[in-house]
Amino acid sequence: MNTIIDRYGAILLSASLLTPATGLLAAETDEAVRERGRAIYAEQMCNLCHTRDGASGPMAHVGGSLDGLAAKRDAAWVKTYLRDPQSVIPSSQMPKSTLTDQQLAELIAFLLGP
Ligand code: HEC
Fold first, then answer.
1. pLDDT (tens place) for every residue of the chain, 114 residues total
2. Strand order, beta sheet including 64-65
3. Residue nearest to atom 33 of ligand 1 (CA)
């Protein structure tokens, strides 16, 4: 006999099986990804040392503005830099990022986005 929970589990299971085949994840909008990146930027307190979209943290003079970053850096550069800032800028004081690859991709989509 099927309980509600059994049925719910079956729906979740079939959804997770279908997702890769139907490309539901790929259909997610760039904007949704950037929104998650924006949340990571806030959680990680990047704003402390940077300015972005007119919002400056108390030490924004330290890291400067990240507006228009895409004109200057590409995703590969930003990824390498955030993973290990000193590998790119030996004098860098930024700590190495401990974000997952997916979180990093979302953060970078936000940083390089409009
Ligand atoms: C403690 C201050 C501080 C914090 C917090 C900080 N940064 Fe920085 N950031 C800097 C400084 C200083 C630089 C200048 C280059 C260097 O010294 O590494 C920089 C440079 C950068 C650059 C390169 C900018 C360019 O024009 O090349 C990026 C991208 C960046 N930070 C992103 C971030 C992100 C994303 C976060 C949050 C995960 C963050 N920063 C948190 C201080 C900080």
1. 556 556 555 555 444 444 444 455 556 789 999 999 999 999 999 999 999 999 999 999 999 999 999 999 999 999 999 999 999 999 998 889 999 999 999 999 999 999
2. 55-56, 50-52, 64-65
3. 46
Geometric angle at alpha carbon 78, from 109 and 68, rounded to 5°: 65
Domains of the chain: 29-112 (1.10.760.10)
Which residue lies with its CA nearest to atom 15 of ligand 1?
92
- Atom from ligand 1 closest to the CA of residue 40: 38
* Ligand 1 center from residue 90 Cα (angstroms): 13
Ligand 1 atom closest to the Cα of residue 88 is 18
